[in-house]
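Retro notes (design track)

What went well: tokenization of the new backbones is finally stable.
What didn't: we kept losing track of which sequence belonged to which structure.
Fix going forward: every design gets posted as structure first, then sequence, in one message. First example under the new rule, 342 residues:
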């Protein structure tokens, strides 16, 4: 191994170690901050109670609730950021995001339909996940030649993108229809879900399993993704099965989007600004970009949700509003910096 490769690996480990520390710090801040503030000594005592399996004090109860919500926020943010990196590599378009292919629209149709017809929370999650998977299957059926092919010179997978836009438009029409006929007592919850809300989430293992599986696949394929993202037409001449990796990226990104949206609703900008920010600071190497974006996306959404539930406490704001208010100026600043570099 040459010196430059060793230096690159050392830098990557240092960056990831720092990001892990910041991720843990964001979870700690989420436990401390709220309508009832807790000191670090109370946090320590509460954690000891939770480890022992008891919640006899108010601090332990608050930490239990806040930590569960923060972990849900972290896995959702990490999921959306990782899906964003994959979509941008798949479509070779820096403006791509997890919602660009209409998968979130399918989740919205399923979730709002369940809210309209049923009252059980678990039905909403199942319906959202099912709707997202249904749209993903339709996308694959209509655009599988585009996914398998390697000859498109613009590299933007035009048929896949066009199919996603059309399906998203159809889903938007169904969403508008359901909102127009929804009773008043359910309309507020439906709107909050569309904006993106973590107030009703509970800790579940499935989103973590989905995130871990997609992260393992993407990091193992990171070298091939680097070549495909930059030189898709030449990748096949280097022995890379471009079609296989494109299908893998599409399936992982669709599954991640379905998991994230069914967990917390349509939270915008995380899958767009976090990959941009990480690529701007760390460079385009997906071996570092993929895990870094996952950690940054998770920490970002934890802090945004902490702000959403504490800025006007005891009232809680939808976290999607906070991510949009932060995301718009940050994205414009990134574009300005890119123009200056250019």
């Amino acid at each position: 191994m040459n010196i430059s490769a060793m230096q690159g690996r050392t830098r990557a480990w240092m960056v990831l170690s720092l990001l892990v520390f910041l991720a843990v710090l964001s979870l700690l801040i989420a436990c401390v901050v709220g309508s009832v503030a807790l000191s670090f000594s109370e946090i320590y005592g509460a954690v000891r109670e939770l480890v022992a399996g008891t919640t006899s004090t108010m601090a332990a109860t608050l930490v239990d609730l806040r930590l569960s919500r923060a972990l849900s926020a972290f896995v959702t943010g990490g999921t959306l950021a990782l899906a964003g990196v994959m979509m941008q590599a798949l479509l070779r378009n820096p403006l791509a995001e997890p919602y660009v292919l209409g998968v979130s629209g399918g989740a919205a149709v399923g979730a709002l339909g369940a809210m309209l017809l049923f009252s059980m929370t678990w039905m909403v999650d199942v319906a959202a996940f099912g709707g997202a998977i249904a749209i993903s299957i339709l996308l694959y059926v209509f655009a599988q030649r585009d996914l398998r092919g390697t000859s498109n010179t613009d590299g933007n997978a035009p048929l896949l993108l066009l199919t996603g836009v059309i399906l998203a438009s159809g889903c938007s029409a169904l969403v508008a229809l359901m909102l127009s006929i929804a009773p008043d007592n359910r309309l507020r919850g439906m709107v909050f879900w569309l904006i993106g809300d973590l107030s009703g989430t509970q800790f579940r293992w499935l989103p973590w399993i989905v995130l871990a599986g997609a992260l393992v696949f993407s990091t193992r394929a990171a070298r091939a993704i680097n070549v495909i993202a930059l030189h898709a037409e030449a990748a096949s001449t280097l022995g890379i099965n471009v079609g296989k990796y494109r299908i893998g990226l599409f399936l992982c990104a669709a599954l991640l989007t379905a998991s994230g949206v069914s967990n917390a609703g349509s939270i915008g900008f995380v899958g767009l600004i976090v990959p941009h920010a990480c690529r701007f600071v760390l460079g385009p190497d997906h071996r570092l970009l993929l895990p870094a974006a996952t950690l940054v996306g998770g920490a970002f959404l934890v802090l945004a949700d902490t702000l959403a539930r504490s800025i006007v406490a005891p009232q809680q704001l939808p976290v999607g509003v906070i991510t949009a208010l932060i995301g718009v100026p940050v994205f414009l600043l990134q574009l300005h910096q890119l123009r200056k570099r250019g």
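Added context from the reviewer: The first helix runs from residue 3 to 32.
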